[in-house]
Amino acid sequence: MAGVIEQKPAPLDVARIRADFPILGREFGGKPLIYLDSAATSQKPRQVIGALNDFYEKHNSNVHRGIYELAVEATELYEGARAKLAAFIGAPDPATIVFNRGTTESVNLVAHAWGRKFLKEGDEILITEMEHHSNIVPWQLAASDTGALLRYIPITDDGLLDLSQLETLLTERTRILAVTGMSNVLGTLNPVGELADAAHAVGALILVDGAQLVPHHGVDVADLDCDFLTVSGHKMLGPTASGGLYARRELLEEMGPFLGGGEMISEVFPDRATWNEVPFKFEAGTMNIAQEVGLGAAIDYLEALGMDAVREHEEEITQYAIECLTEAGAEVFGPKDAQIRGGAVSFAYKTVHPHDLAEVLNAEGISVRAGHHCAQILMRRLNVPATTRASFYVYNTKDEVDALVAAMARAEDVFG
Amino acid sequence: MALDDLYKEVILDHYKNPRNKRELPGAELTCSRNNPLCGDEITVHAHLEKDAIAGVAFEGQGCSISQASASMMTEAIAGKAVEDAKALTADFRGMMAGEVEPDEDEFGELVALKGVVKYPIRVKCAVLAWDVLQEALDGAGQAAGSAPH
Fold this sequence. Notes:
The complex is a heterodimer. By secondary structure, chain A is an alpha/beta fold. Chain A has helices spanning 14-19, 46-59, 69-88, 103-118, 137-146, 166-169, 192-201, 213-216, 221-224, 249-254, 289-305, 307-327, 354-362, 376-382, 398-415, and strands spanning 27-28, 31-32, 34-35, 97-99, 124-128, 149-153, 174-180, 205-209, 228-232, 243-247, 265-268, 273-275, 330-332, 344-349, 366-367, 369-371, 387-391. Chain A has two domains: 14-43 and 307-415, Aspartate Aminotransferase, domain 1 (Alpha-Beta Complex); 49-303, Type I PLP-dependent aspartate aminotransferase-like (Major domain) (Aspartate Aminotransferase, domain 2), CATH 3.40.640.10. Chain A is globular and about 70 Å long. The N and C termini of chain A lie far apart (44 Å). Chain B has a single domain, classed as Sufe protein. Chain: A. Helix content of chain B is 44%, strand content 18%.
C-alpha cells in the first residue's frame, strides 16, 4: 500500500491528543469515559468543533450562487475542504471528489448513477463476505433492477479474503468489484492494490469502501489505481454527514446523475435538463457545507499527526489488545497479526452474550459495540449471532485496554 | 446506573436455568422472531385446550434479558385462559413502556424485569418473547390483528 517505511515515525503524543477531545473528559457513573467505538464513529477534536462554530458564526451562507462577499467566503471554505480531501487521498484533481454524507451514500451513488446506466443482464457484481451492509444492499438493489448477478468472494477461517478461486469469480462477466479496504468487524486490511490490478485485467472497475481504511491508514488512490473510493468523514475526526466519493473523472463524466434538483443542473427546460459539470452534477440541493468544512479541519489535524504515526500507534495498541483479550479467555476474530489488520477488534468472551458484556462494560464507563455490526453475512460465516467489538483510534491508550480486560472479568462474575 | 437493577438475581436464575426451554410435541401454535439488533432469537410453542394455554415452551438464543424474559413468560402464562394471557401481554408491554405500574399479584416474578425500563435499548430484548407469543395467539384466530413492528 504505502511505500516501504524506512524509519519509524515519532510516536503520537497521546496525552496531548486527548487534551484536544473535550468529550474524553466526561464521566459516566463517576467513571471516566473509555471510548472504544471509533469504528462506529470517531470523537471530534476541538479544532473540528471550532471549525464548525467558526463557519456558522462568521462565514455561513449558501455556496456557489451568491454574489456577495459572505457567499464567496463560504464557497472558498467548502471548495478548500474538497481540495484538502483530494490531497489527503492522493486524488489528482479536486473535481474527482463528490461531497456527500459518506460511504453509504457514496456506494448508493455509484450503484445508481453507474450501475443503473451500465449494468445489464448477464453482468456480474463481485463483492465479499466481509462487507458492511452499505456495500451489499445497494448492489442487491442494483442487481435486482438490472438483472445483473451478485457474487461473493469467500473468506478464510483466519478472516482473510479467500482468493484461491478468484479466477472463477472475477471474470470477463464481472463489471465491478466492490470491496472494503478494511473490515469493520475483522479489522482485515485487504490487498486492494492487487485486487485493482486483477479487476482491471478482466476489464472490471473496482470500488474500495474506505470507511474504515481512510481514517486509519495513509491512502493514495493513484497508487492503488482504484476507480472509486468512499470516505466517511465522521469516522476520521470529522462531523457526521461529512465525507464523499472519489471517482476517476471520466467515470463521473459518463455516469448519469444521482439526485436531481438545484445546483446539479446546467439548464432546465420543460421536459428535460442538462447537467452541471463534475463534481457538481452529483451535489443536488444545499449541501452539508459546514460539515465538509469541519472535515477539512479534521484532515488538517490528521496530517499534522502524520498518517504513518497514526497507523503505528494503532498497530501497537491493536496488537496489545489482541494479546490481552486472548489471555483473558476471549476469542478474537480475524487476523491476529496487527501488521495485516486495523484496530477494529471483534471478539467472543466465554459464554457471556455480547449485549450483556457491553452492558457490564458500560457500567464501568467503557463504550464498546455489541451486535452484528451491519455485517449479517459475515456473522453467519463466523457462525455467531453477534460479537463484541472494541475499536481504537489516535486517543486510545494501553491503559484503556487494561481497563477493558479488567471489566470483562466482572462480567464473568455476573454471568459465569 | 447500578447493574443490579438490570441483572436481578431472579433474572440471572432464569437465564442460567431456563424453564420450559424445549420443543413441545403436539403444539399447534409455533411462532419465531429475531431481534436483528442483537441477534436474539425466540421461538414460542403453545398448545391450547378449550381456549386455555395447556402447554407452552420456548427455544432460542440471545442475551440474558431476552432469554430470561421468555423463560419467565412461559411460567406466567401456563394454564391461563388465552384472553388472560393476552391481557398480561398487554400489561407487560405497558410496564416496559413505563406506562403500567405492575400489580405484584398479576406479575409475580415478572416485576423483576421492570428494571429494564431504565435501559431503553434493552426493552426490545425483554419484549421479544411476548411479541412472539402475541403473534402465536393472534394466529390462533381469536383476535385477528397485525403483530407490532
